[in-house]
Specification:
Elements lengths: L2 H8 L5 E2 L21 E11 L3 E10 L8 E11 L6 E13 L6 E13 L6 E4 L2 E4 L9 E14 L4 E12 L4 E15 L2 E10 L5 E11 L3 E10 L6 E11 L1
Antiparallel strand pairs: 2-3, 2-15, 3-4, 4-5, 5-6, 6-9, 7-8, 9-10, 10-11, 11-12, 12-13, 13-14, 14-15
């Protein structure tokens, strides 16, 4: 697998993935949507070591309310800058449907479907999954292609929302090589007191070693402005990867 692609599977901006289409700073998605009639913008920057590269994400989302009040629509993208093997970019559109709202001490369910337009920076066969870019067997090219995906989501609240756990399982169809790539994720958000929340998660895709991430979320303006930061790592080859990310989330 190409080294800049290993970096991308480590963290997607937006999930999603597409993995970046999950709520910052998670890669694992949650069973929540933007409030009816509401909008949000998420963005972050990630810098990685082991294989040096920088990733930029920008993802607006909306809930139009009315008959669509359980649906969240998102459209965003990223740029991956690598001096070693070229640059890549992804544009992803996603619809998330809230099947059962998450309540305190309860369980919620959601389902997301989307499609990613991928312009790879390598001649290997690359697919964009909800949790990042990955390579698969087959003849590759730098030609742009479109990869649809599906992600099942559940969230469980305990201790009056003091801890909320998230679980994902899904798949992406590589339309270029006609293969299906699986993904999984497990995450936890822990109330630390006041506007601070801690996050921890593990996630991965087919034929890749798991990636891990820990971080903190801070509500500078409750329910309106969030800032966050993470540290992540993945044991990989030819080099172990580590990264930091800094992001912002604006809701109105």
């Amino acid at each position: 697998m190409g080294r800049p692609l290993r970096l991308a599977v480590a963290l997607l901006a937006v999930l999603g993935s597409p993995g970046a289409l999950a709520a910052r700073p998670f890669v694992t998605d949650d069973a929540r949507v933007v409030d009816p009639g509401g909008y949000q913008i998420e963005g972050f920057v990630k810098a990685q070591r082991g294989v040096k590269a920088t990733e930029y994400w920008f993802v607006p989302a909306a809930n139009f309310g009315g008959a669509l009040d359980r649906f969240e629509f998102a459209l965003g993208g990223n740029l991956i800058r690598s001096n070693e093997e070229g640059n890549s970019n992804v544009v992803a559109g996603q619809v998330k449907a809230l099947l059962k709202p998450l309540e305190a001490n309860g369980i919620g369910f959601a389902l997301s479907v989307g499609v990613a337009r991928l312009k790879p920076g390598t001649s290997q066969e690359v697919v964009a999954t909800p949790f990042g870019l990955t390579t698969v067997a087959g003849e590759g090219s730098t030609k742009t292609h479109y990869d649809p995906y599906l992600n099942a989501i559940s969230s469980v609240s305990v201790l009056d929302d003091a801890a909320v756990f998230h679980f994902n399982a899904g798949a992406t169809r590589d339309t270029s090589s006609h293969q299906t790539i699986g993904n999984w994720g497990v995450g936890a958000e822990i109330a630390l007191g006041g506007p601070f929340y801690g996050i921890a998660e593990g996630y991965g895709v087919s034929h890749e070693k798991p990636a891990y991430q820990v971080g903190v979320r801070y509500w500078a303006i409750p329910a309106r402005l969030q800032v966050d930061a993470t540290y992540g790592w993945q044991h990989s080859s030819p080099a172990d990867l580590s990264w930091i990310s800094v992001g912002v989330r604006i809701l109105w």
